[in-house]
């Protein structure tokens, strides 16, 4: 009895000792000697799926944390943990901009979902991180819906709604403006060009055919085609199916490091039953998928074939994704 109590006490002391991280918070800057001269296409970075959804700030009747929460760390927490690519889905709710996670549930002919961190919070998280770290941060905007309209059919943003969002996002410090802002292929820009002397934030966006970036195209906002990624998720909740889907796609898309800029979409998607609450939550699925990456990916890596973005749910502050990205950057990429 006493012995087991002692062991219990000992194990809680042991688990409280912080894991030594191989890479510092500003891991890009710390490795600029190795990575600085490389274009983004020859670098691997960790990234966050549905990055704003670490909080649930209201939503529709059939949504809850189990079927909309994808992260447990805020954008600031994910930045500190090493993530550098953020899938941000802006919505309008109560007349303000927030992140959100919404889907059209065709079975009930209704849009369902929740709101995450506000866009104002996202901006201040990025600014406080870049005030202390000369790192590159990539923001990808998509799935923009006006949820103040009735949820039988959420409309996508109008030009005015996009413009007001862009205007708010110009509050991000250190937006990177390329000398050729409308024609540059960002995957060919070297890391030093972005962050040799300051932090850099790049926003990529593709509103749709009828909406344009206007003046924001020369203020740090770029079209998807300017960081043209292969980005195709498996759409399954089964780990082995997702693994073979993504590793097969990687092999096909990345025969050489100059082929597609490749996002490895290492996420599981809930089945309809899981969405309804029968089975694993999104975070539980992530806790299955994330550790599997450390064993499934390395055997498939070579100097010709490696991913550019390790894209996951539930990004943790244990240093492991950064370590994996840096292992790729050191042993395979050049
Ligand atoms: C940005 O998001 C869109 C929409 O999900 C996607 O099609 C595109 O590939 C993404 N870009 C990158 C660099 O991942």
Automatic annotation (TrEMBL):
SUPFAM superfamilies xref list: PLC-like phosphodiesterases (SSF51695)
InterPro entries assigned to the protein according to its UniProt record, in alphabetical order: PI-PLC_domain, PLC-like_Pdiesterase_TIM-brl
Entry annotated with the keyword Electron transport: no
One Gene Ontology MF term: phosphoric diester hydrolase activity
GO BP of this protein: lipid metabolic process
Classification via PROSITE patterns: PIPLC_X_DOMAIN
Annotated protein name in UniProt: PLC-like phosphodiesterase
């Amino acid at each position: 009895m006493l012995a087991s109590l002692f062991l219990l006490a000992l194990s809680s002391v042991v688990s409280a000792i912080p894991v030594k991280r191989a890479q510092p918070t500003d891991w890009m800057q710390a490795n600029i000697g190795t990575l600085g001269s490389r274009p983004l296409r020859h670098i691997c970075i960790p990234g966050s799926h549905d990055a704003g959804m670490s909080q649930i700030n209201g939503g529709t009747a059939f949504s809850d944390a189990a079927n909309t929460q994808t992260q447990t760390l805020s954008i600031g927490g994910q930045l500190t943990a090493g993530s550098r690519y953020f899938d941000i889905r802006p919505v309008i709710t109560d007349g303000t901009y927030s992140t959100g996670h919404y889907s059209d549930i065709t079975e009930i002919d209704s849009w369902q979902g929740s709101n995450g961190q506000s866009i104002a919070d996202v901006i201040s998280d990025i600014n406080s991180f870049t005030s202390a770290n000369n790192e590159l941060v990539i923001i990808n905007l998509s799935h923009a819906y006006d949820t103040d309209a009735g949820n039988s059919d959420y409309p996508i943003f109008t030009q005015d709604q996009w413009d007001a969002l862009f205007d708010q996002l110009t509050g991000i410090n250190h937006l990177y403006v390329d000398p050729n802002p409308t024609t540059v292929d960002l995957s060919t820009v070297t890391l030093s060009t972005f962050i040799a002397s300051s932090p850099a934030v790049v926003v990529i966006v593709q509103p749709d055919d009828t909406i344009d970036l206007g003046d924001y195209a020369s203020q740090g906002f770029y079209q998807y085609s300017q960081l043209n990624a292969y980005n195709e998720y498996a759409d399954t909740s089964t780990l082995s199916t997702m693994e073979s889907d993504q590793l097969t796609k990687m092999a096909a898309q990345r025969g050489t490091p100059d082929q597609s800029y490749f996002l490895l979409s290492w996420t599981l998607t809930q089945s309809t039953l899981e969405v309804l609450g029968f089975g694993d939550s999104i975070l539980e699925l992530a806790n299955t998928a994330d550790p599997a990456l450390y064993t499934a990916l390395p055997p498939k890596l070579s100097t010709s074939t490696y991913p550019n973005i390790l894209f996951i749910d539930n990004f943790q502050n244990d240093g492991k994704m950064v370590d994996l990205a840096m292992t790729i950057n050191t042993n395979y990429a050049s």
